[in-house]
Design goal:
The chain is of the alpha+beta class. It has helices at about 1-35, 40-55, 60-70, 75-110, 125-180, 185-215, 230-240, 240-250, 265-280, 315, 340-350; strands spanning about 225-230, 250-255, 260-265, 290-295, 300-305, 355-360, 365-370. The protein is elongated and about 140 Å long. Keywords: Kinase, Membrane, Phosphoprotein, Transferase, Transmembrane, Transmembrane helix, Two-component regulatory system.
């Protein structure tokens, strides 16, 4: 962009110089042809004749006027002619600049145009048209993403509101039954109490999803960094997932060559790793192995989370980190959450100046997090 503006500036400067040179050339041509040149007598006679015919002067008086204007005051006449030509050149340059400004103003207004018609500008401003078309494309993409995200959020809130009614209705029904049936056998009373407790846990999960949506909308990642043992943190996380692993007969292999000391926000990074492990468990085939690798280099640390499960389609990989996006759209599935986990995880990783990527194939799905060492 900077080089293109330099080219435009050079072009305008050359045009200005060209107009000035042209003014000088025209003035010189006029001088040598009509005043001091081969056409001098023809021009003089014509000028004198014009004064005689239009002003009623005699030949001697008309001849004196010609001499005073074009011969005795030649420098002044030439200077005036040059200034006149220079003024015309500056006017042309001003018109050219005005046209550029008008084109740029119209192009900026077209950025808000909802049509797909491309922005077209004149020669010399093609680079700006290209840049503005790219800006327009990005704005439309962001608008579309924001609109889709808002729609997903609205759908999610509607689903959550509907889902909350189900466990709440069950809780009210079983509690009413327990209150009305005072002589209910203890086995049934225990069964109904357990159902109420399970439904309460489910209700708590749904309410937490509501809070997660609200927190994300007002959320700004503020890091509170400290030095901690990253490998020890991951070992603790893996131990905490032991009950969930038993349900599907899964196993987590944590592999690293040496312990890693890292400087970052412990609580937020725990949330990132916890989310990725939870997704790996939720989407893994039963009796499979989840592989967790930690690689350390001089400049950064890389963590990979690999699980064996259904291949994620390519078009979903491109949107998997968008907020309110869920791989499993079923609300009854245990894997169906608010769709904020990976979006928040990306924000936290980016806040640490890191990257998070995903790839999926028949060999498995791999999430890769790279975090640079920085104070």
């Amino acid at each position: 962009m900077k080089d293109n503006f330099k080219k435009l500036k050079r072009k305008l400067l050359l045009e200005a110089i060209g107009l000035i040179v042209m003014s000088v050339i025209l003035g010189a041509i006029f001088l040598h042809l009509f005043v001091d040149g081969v056409l001098e007598s023809w021009f003089a006679e014509g000028f004198v004749t014009w004064l005689q015919n239009w002003m009623g002067l005699d030949y001697y008086a008309a001849r004196q006027i010609y001499l005073k204007i074009f011969v005795y005051n030649k420098p002044m006449i030439l200077g005036g002619a040059f200034l006149l030509l220079l003024g015309g050149a500056l006017y042309v340059m001003g018109m050219r600049l005005t046209r550029y400004y008008q084109e740029m103003a119209q192009a900026v207004h077209k950025l808000l145009d909802e049509s797909d018609e491309p922005i077209v500008m004149s020669d010399g401003l093609e680079f700006m048209a290209t840049e503005l078309n790219e800006v327009k494309r990005v704005l439309k993409h962001r608008e579309r993403v924001a609109r889709e995200s808002e729609q997903r959020k609205n759908d999610l809130v509607m689903y959550l509101a509907h889902d909350i009614k189900t466990p709440l209705t069950s809780i009210i029904g079983y509690l009413s039954l327990l209150e009305e049936s005072q002589e209910l056998p203890s086995t049934f009373r225990q069964k109904y109490t357990g159902i109420c407790l399970d439904k309460s846990y489910r209700l708590e999960t749904l309410i937490n999803e509501f809070f997660e949506i609200t927190r994300f909308n007002i959320h700004e990642v503020v890091l509170e960094k400290e030095t901690f043992n990253l490998t020890f943190m991951m070992e603790q996380l893996v131990d905490e997932f032991y009950p969930l692993l038993l349900e599907k007969n899964l196993k987590i292999n944590l592999m690293y060559e040496e312990e890693v000391e890292f400087y970052g926000d412990v609580d937020k990074l725990v949330r990132v790793f916890n989310n990725l492990l939870k997704n790996a468990v939720a989407y893994s085939y039963p009796q499979s192995i989840i592989e967790l690798h930690i690689f350390k280099t001089v400049a950064e640390v890389t963590l990979t989370f690999k699980n064996q499960g259904k291949t994620i389609p390519k078009h979903k990989l491109e949107t998997i980190f968008e907020k309110f996006y869920r791989l499993d759209t079923s609300r009854t599935s245990q894997t169906g959450g608010s769709g904020l986990g990976l979006a928040i995880a990306k924000e936290i990783v980016v806040a640490h100046k890191g990257t998070i990527e995903v790839e999926s194939s028949e060999a498995g799905t791999i999430f890769t997090i790279t975090l640079p060492y920085s104070k």
